[in-house]
Amino acid sequence: ITGNVCLYGATRGEAYVNGVAGERFCVRNSGAIVVVEGVGDHGCEYMTGGRITILGETGRNFGAGMSGGIAFVYSPKKDF
Question: Which of 2, 44, 59, 80 has the lowest CB atom count within 10 Å?
């Protein structure tokens, strides 16, 4: 598990999280490349760049205000 607000405002770099992230993960990300097994509420809010791959569930309000970057969400239950 990684904590709330992790990678807030990240401008570059890479992160590979073996587990689920808390709330507001990758908010305002503008350049980081990230792989995570799941995120809490408000993930990728206001994201302007970078790439994130989520291999599990997302919380509510995912990607609100997202104006750039790419988010890949794997949803085996097809409920994203």
Answer: 80
